[in-house]
Known about the structure:
It contains 17 helices and 14 strands. The protein is an alpha/beta fold. The strands form four sheets. A five-stranded mixed beta sheet has the order 1-2-5-4-3. The protein has a five-stranded parallel beta sheet with strand order 11-12-10-13-14, sandwiched between helices. β3 (about 70-75) and β4 form a beta hairpin. The relative contact order is 0.11. Mean pLDDT is about 85; it is low at about 305-325.
Amino acid sequence: MRPTRLDVFSALATELAAIGETPGMRAAWQGADGANATWCTATGAADLDIWCDNASFPVLDALLSSLDGARIQQADSPGRLRHVSYAVETLTGLAVVDLTRGDLMVGPILLVPADDVRTVGASAASGGPRLSGVAGAADRFVRPLLRGRLVDGARLDEARTEWQRAAVHQRDAFLDRLDGQLGSTVAAGIASVLDGDTAPTNLVRDARRALVRQTVRPRNLAASWRSRSTILPAGRKAGVLGLRTTGCLVVLVGTDGSGKSTVAREIDSRLTASGLRTSTAYLGMARGNLPGVGLARRLLGVAPAGDSAPTTTPVPRSSAAPAPQSRDHAMIRRAAAWYYAIEYGYRWWRDIRPGLRHGGVVIADRYVYDLRESPWPGSTASRVAEWLMPHPDVLVLPDAPDRIIHARKPERPAAEQEAQQDRFRALVAADPARTASLVVDTSGLSVGSPDPVAPVVAAVLETLHRAH
């Protein structure tokens, strides 16, 4: 079952409280005090922000991974903000959690070194630890200022409270650091606002210009270039999470009865519910063929239901090599293999390529791997076609015990189904996909994976945001 946003928040709050009680580890919520409650009831892509030190990061990363959180953005260049963003599929849509790691920064601007960050309210009863003192003021006021927003109201009041909580020498060190990076005018303006005055005219403009100047300085230019995908706005090409996306090809393989159609429908439904654009394609050998393939199939005895195995010879129990098949009409079969190889390329161009544009997801039932077995097992055409065809981004094998698979589709011999499914298991084990090769349990018997499709959704999200 998918979690709710409150489930995700509660799990993180519990972990933050445990970290706060562990010597040598620190982590805290970021943002205004009411940001967490707003995030729990929201349905959009607003971030739930957390700061953590290097010791705490692996713990929080493992927790979000256990929730099938997909890494959609990662910045780890020296001299710039280090953070990782995760998208977690919840019952109300995709929820984003952002982990800032180490020094508190905005781009190349160092606000507070990690060793100087202070937290307050470490218990779960207090809502978990929050950034305090200079770090709290910088997070609530200076961070949004450098991103082009002048905060007011409760968030500004909280920033001023944390500013007054800090010792005088901590405030002086903070302002000296800003003076050296942003200039005296911006540093003085920030100090005056935190001391209770009205924001100077053009403070946002001056702060943004100072940030740009630091970004393009020679010593920061290389790191800025490496982080360009997280710096440049996506604009009209933004996906559902506000980031530029690329296309994703999901391929389902498996013998008849393994559950491909059921899993494909579930993936399609889940991705559509998350706001993603999907389309489907069938790449078996039964539908959408080039002219003349139907006649060739009848001559060669190839199964008309789209299965790659011919109907002439049962397949023995084997999990490695393709099954021996009838070698009648050898020349015709060799020619047909090349014909099918051309057809796969044609159908990729016609059915898959258009769906991948502008961050689309194509869910394909079967792929070029069927050509390994039919119409000429082990043919050169199969190897050439696999080399030329793009690798799937996510390869999915719906799987169940062989007896269950055969009970669903008893039309073919059980040994034949088992041998073919074994070959698909070997294919997935070889991991030919660009992002992930996954097995989805369709038996309904496993209690250890209550949501077997969640890893597929996470892999799709990671593929879509590959550039980030």
